[in-house]
Structures are given as structure tokens and as C-alpha cells.
Amino acid sequence: MKTRFSSYDIICGIAELQRLIGLRVNQIYDIDNKTYLFRLHGGGSSEKVTLLIESGTRFHTTSFEWPKNMAPSGFCMKFRKHLKNKRLEHINQLGADRIVDFQFGSGEAAYHVFLELYDRGNVILTDYEKTILYILRPHMEGESIRFAVREKYPVDRAKIGNCELMESEMREIIENSNEGDSLKRILMPILDCGPAVIEHVLIEHGLENHLIKGSVDQEKGQDESSKKQSKKKNRKCSEINPSDIQFFDLASDLPTLMLAIKSAYDIMTFFLNGSSKGFIIQVKEEKLTNAENTEHFYRNIEFHPYLFSHFF
């Protein structure tokens, strides 16, 4: 089962939660030391929504009656002190990073809750100047960035999204890649869309089994045994079934790869428009009820905002 939100989950989640803008915080509860419930209501209207945020993992609305802590934690009390009756003004992603900024209130009365959804995660409460008032996990990042109370939250450190890659740039990346690398491994740090989107577009364009082959210069002078050894290395480096392996050819495959990358950008644009739906991926299993009868049931294994090709 999915254990945390990926980049495209975050984009879809933010687009979906735009409907909460304008609601006010009625109350805040904590489920455990990293999971919090924000009860929101629509002022004079009868609309009531519960927003759940979990450090490092997820954010979404919920109708489930979660068991709450009998006594609110210090962090929960800070939330209540600063955010109660504040209106939710904005929900944004910082750059292309897995950080979500929830702004409550406006002007000098604004407060920000930064939810970090990568690595060990974090939840940070700041004032309108982004000065940290409370932080779930104080720590140092490198030697210069300190995450602690009274420090400024470094919003400018967020990863900036890539513009569309030019074919010449992608050619250079391919030429400098390691022998035996898969296209998925190469594209992961370049495209800010998560592994599921990349795998989907590679399958759609017939490139899911392509590996990078050594350059012609590297192959010159190799004897047959060296070539066999290199081929074994490629197969060992890959998670692809050895019988399905194909080697990437710059002349014939690069234009197709550029079309796949464009498809990835198109999918992300589709998400940004809030047009996605939810899909639950299930697997059919069976269990013996007695010596003669078998009962079938479906087990949930994944959930996604898009029906990707690798689930067919």
C-alpha cells in the first residue's frame, strides 16, 4: 500500500483542496505526535470539513472519526492559540518540492503551516514573516540552514521546477549517463513528476525496457569476453527482465523519448487544473473457506489520481 504522497499526489491534492479556501478553523486536534486534524467550517454556512495532515506522509480531507489524544500536545496548543478562527487563505506547493504551505489569515495576522513530505518529514508553524514559532523536528541542514524556533523558514531553498527540456539537453544527459542505467532512473531526478508518471509515459511510448549502452568509443578494442561481461553488468544493474532488454539508440529513440517527456508535462498540467479523479488499485485473491470451497476477495494495494498504464 502507498505509504506517502509523491510529487503528483501533492499537485492533485492541492488542486482538490482549493475548495477549502475561505473556510475558518473551528478546532484542531492531534491524533499522534505527527498527525493533526483541522476542523474547518464555512462561517455562516453549515459546511464542515476535517483536514488531516501527517508529517512526511500525506494531507487530505477525512470523514473518519479518528481517535484523538485525551490531552492536546504542546504543538497542538500552539496551533489552537494562533490559528483558531483564522480563515484558510492559500494552499500552495513551494516550487516543485514536496512542501505544502497552508496560509491562515492575511497580512500581518497571517500564519503559515509548512508540511514537509520528504525524508523524515516535518511540520512548521511560522508567522507572516516566515519566522518559526514552533517546529515538530528541529534540525540542521548542512552547516548554514538551521530549523529551529525564532529562525526564518528558508522558503527559497525549495527545488525549482524544470522548464521543458530541449532535445539537445536530453542528448547530453543520455551521453553522460552510466552504462546500464534505465531511462526511468535517468529521468527521475530531471522530471518533477514522480516515478509512476515516468513509468507510465515510458510504457506508452515503448521505452520501458531501454537501457543505456556504452559509447562506441568505449566498445572499440573490447574482445568478445569483455563485451559479454559488459552485457551482464547491464543486466545486473537493471530491474528489467533480461530477455526484454533493449539498448537506447540516440538516433532513433531520442525523438520518441522527447514525446514521452512532453506527455509527462501534459499529465502534470492536467493535474494542475484539478481534473484528476481517484483510482484504487486492487488485486483479486482467494482463500479456502473449507476443504471444498474457495472464497474470492479484493485487496487494496494502491491509490492514484490517474489510471497509469503499468496497472493494466
UniProtKB/TrEMBL annotation:
Highest taxon in the source lineage: Eukaryota
Region span, Disordered: 214-236
Segments passing through the bilayer: none
One Pfam short name: NFACT_N
Compositionally skewed regions (Basic and acidic residues) per UniProt: 214-227
Official protein name in the record: Nuclear export mediator factor NEMF homolog
Species this chain originates from: Drosophila arizonae (Fruit fly)
